[in-house]
Design brief:
Layout: H1 2-8, H2 14-30, H3 37-58, H4 65-70, H5 73-80, H6 83-86, H7 90-93, H8 121-132, E1 148-157, H9 160-173, E2 179-181, E3 191-193, E4 197-206, E5 209-211, E6 224-230, E7 236-253, E8 256-267
Parallel strand pairs: 2-3
Antiparallel strand pairs: 1-4, 4-5, 4-7, 6-7, 7-8
Helix pairs in contact: 1-8, 2-3, 3-5
Length: about 280
């Protein structure tokens, strides 16, 4: 669903971009482990739009039996719950039994166990642009947090090295706006002293994806990330890393408190190369 959009978008005419957007959204809804009732209605309306677009642009001969059958998927979900829970093969059906926990209470149908993605065509296009060229991306280093931190959680005191990292992070994030310092640093006029306490979390949910941390066997695979950065010479490079933990930290700005949702990541060093 992600790579099809990323790989094909610039090669498709606008009519096929619309079809792909509808298709990706339907797949995203129907394979979710939490399936909200209003999303089932959307997942039924979008295949109808797909079929109408195919008929208009490619003729009725392209309307296959499978397209007709897709119009019944939502009825199946209404009757039996998410497709995730009753896929045909036994190893797929086991997904429902593996003990995945409910994330929150909401109007759902069947045995719902994860949140549905909320991607529209403009968000898909923005995602593609961000992947393609982050120099032209609208992301500026921080953005509203649309997910939630998940337990286990605990309160912790930051080490001296962690405090230094946080001061550097805030000074870079609020550049030319505020200046930050550690409690033990020399007092500078109008500087903001950061708090030493953080709230650590073991997991983070963003849309339907749950990301874990390094020391949890269950979530080790979901703790690995690959991030793109613009380096000093203006070029873009990718860095692999592993999430050590998620945490929330609050700073006291002049206009009120600001809570930040962050992740502490161990970045891997580049591998040394040798000539053969």
């Amino acid at each position: 669903m992600i790579y099809a959009t990323t790989s094909l978008w610039e090669h498709l005419p606008s009519k096929d971009q619309k079809i792909l957007t509808h298709f990706g959204r339907v797949c995203s809804i129907l394979v979710s482990r939490i399936l909200e009732i209003e999303l089932i209605e959307e997942a039924h309306e979008r295949p109808i739009k797909i079929i109408k677009l195919i008929e208009v642009h490619y003729g009725r001969v392209k309307i296959t039996p499978n397209l007709h059958l897709s119009l019944n998927l939502c009825d199946c979900s209404n009757d039996f719950g998410p497709l995730y829970a009753f896929w045909y093969f036994s190893f797929e059906r086991m997904n429902e039994i593996l003990g995945l926990e409910l994330l929150e209470d909401r109007p759902t149908t069947g045995s719902s166990i994860s949140a549905a993605d909320q991607f529209s065509s403009d968000k898909l296009e923005r995602f593609w642009l961000n992947v393609k060229n982050i120099q032209e991306s609208t992301i500026t280093g921080c953005e509203p947090f649309s997910g939630e931190m998940l337990k286990p959680s605990s309160e912790a005191i930051m080490t001296e090295s962690m405090l230094e990292l946080m001061v550097a992070f805030y000074n870079a994030s609020y550049i030319e706006m505020y200046q930050f310092r550690k409690p033990a640093d020399e007092i500078i006029q109008d500087s903001i002293t950061i708090r030493v306490k953080i709230n650590q979390f073991g997991r983070c949910r963003i849309s339907s994806e749950v990301f874990g941390f390094a020391i949890s066997v269950r979530h080790t695979k979901s703790s690995c990330v690959l991030a793109k950065f613009i380096i000093s010479n203006g070029e873009v490079d990718s860095y692999p890393g592993q999430i050590q933990y998620f945490f929330k930290h609050t700073v006291d700005l002049p206009n009120g408190q600001m809570e930040h949702n962050l992740a502490y990541i161990h970045w891997y060093r580049p591998a040394s190369t040798s000539e053969s």
